[in-house]
Amino acid sequence: MPQDTISNPILRGFNPDPSIVRVGEDYYVATSTFEWFPGVQIHHSRDLVNWRLLTRPLTRPSQLNMLGAPDGCGLWAPCLTHADGRFWLIYTDVKRYGRTTVGGASGASLRDFHNYLVTADAIEGPWSDPVYLNSSGFDPSLFHDDDGRKWLLNQLWDHRPGRNRFAGIVAQQYDPAVQALVGERRNIFPGTVLGLTEAPHLYKRNGWYHLVTAEGGTGFGHAVTMARSRTLEGPYELHPDGPVLTARDRPHAPLQRAGHADLVETPDGTTWMAYLCGRPLPNRGRCVLGRETAIQPMVWGEDDWLRTRDGSGDPELAPPSPGLPPAPWPAAPEWEDFDGPALPIDFQWLRSPFPDELFSLTARSGWLRLYGRETIGSQYRQALVARRQQAFCYGARTVLDFAPEHFQQAAGLVCYYGASKFHYLFVSRDGEHGRHLQVMSALPDSPQADAFTAPIPLPDAGLVHLRVEVDFERLRFAYSLDGDRWTWLPQVFDASILSDEATAPGAPNFTGAFVGMACQDLSGAARPADFDGFGYVERGYRASLE
């Protein structure tokens, strides 16, 4: 029997900026990955209820190289479409974030973002080398018109003093024969009073060009706005109801930050909206799971405007399912042995398209070997392999084999958001304590930006089992020398700092919490650390330790 409802979010944990497409009976959603490599996550479903992570298409240096990209930059807002028997994927590679737009446009806010196109005959690839499109703004989208022409839309960035940074949505024709933009660039939509106009997607229905955009910023003021025109180049009239979907003035909504949407139609003609959302911690208001993806059915009115089912504009936590034949996927394993030649698909690393410099799955059979590289939080070569936190309550553990020679070598288990936000349980060595265990925390909103716990002496050699348990904003570490008897560290760490909302003012914060393994060697010797598997288990709230 088909499942009656959909459980939102459908893509839990850091999966923002969804772009959705249907090809036959298959549905695909592409989401942003920012500084995490490989680039772009593509999830797959056959019933809109059950989803699996299928592939990440940007795997080569020629497609994506984010070395040096600041936190919150890298791969933004992919757009996935299917036309002419091919998949088309547009994306932005952000090299510089510049100053925040908060507080007005008093001076230049210089940003560098480059937009590219790759194509593939099959969703699993191989995907082509990229075609460079432009650098005028971000959130590019490709529209395939019914006359055969293709149009690139993107947000236009205006760095000039006193100007609206988010200067509207521009459109320009793309010629696939010459693989270049042609003709005049036109600003087709200046945006509304909500401001921060971005994320354009264009659709044609009943002779109308319908433009969907995101406005109000990607925080709690986010909203989906719509406008329409009889011609692609406009002028566009605004939706009479204002935002089509938003939680900006609805503190009761369990799904907050709703915006950045895309539309898809099921075979029965129902229009579905996939959109970005966030779930704040109940008693902290911070979204440690990052920006996630939800979906719900929409309704076209007799006036040819799109609305939510009840017209309220509310995001739905449990919308009705489309009633398609159930298509569940196997459950993800709770323990990864690292027995294969490739990383399990849930894991990523940071920025570098040269993974052989950072880790190996063949140097020691059944182990993940990390080569000690730069400091944790480095924007270049950082040996950190991690997976998303996808529930408010979870446990993770690993087994570490590491023999550091001095204090500049460290390895361990890390709960990580970015260079200014992490809790790191690591093994190192110094002359005073010998081999020891310690926690280093980077605190983004504290007068003390970093903090260390007292060193815990360890035997000079041997395996160390490392463990973390997270319950909402509470984070506890433990270690064991035999994998059976655990010693809990006395400190309770603040897991809520691993969120967009915990930040220094103006810093870009667009990802989410990860948990994984890391290794550093500041001496340049690249001393390795070996990890014998990794476990990740989601669970209910636990008031006390085992």
UniProtKB/TrEMBL annotation:
Annotated stretches, region: Disordered: 306-328
GO molecular function annotations of the record: xylan 1,4-beta-xylosidase activity
Pfam families referenced in this protein's UniProt entry, alphabetically: GH43_C2, Glyco_hydro_43
InterPro entries registered for this protein in UniProt: ConA-like_dom_sf, GH43_C2, Glyco_hydro_43, Glyco_hydro_beta-prop_sf, Glycosyl_Hydrlase_43
Domain Beta-xylosidase C-terminal Concanavalin A-like: 336-536
Biased composition (Pro residues): 317-328
Keywords: Glycosidase, Hydrolase
Enzyme class (EC, first level): hydrolase
SUPFAM superfamilies: Arabinanase/levansucrase/invertase (SSF75005), Concanavalin A-like lectins/glucanases (SSF49899)
EC number in record: 3.2.1.37
Leader sequence residues: none
Family recorded in the similarity comment: Belongs to the glycosyl hydrolase 43 family.
Protein name stated in the entry: Xylan 1,4-beta-xylosidase
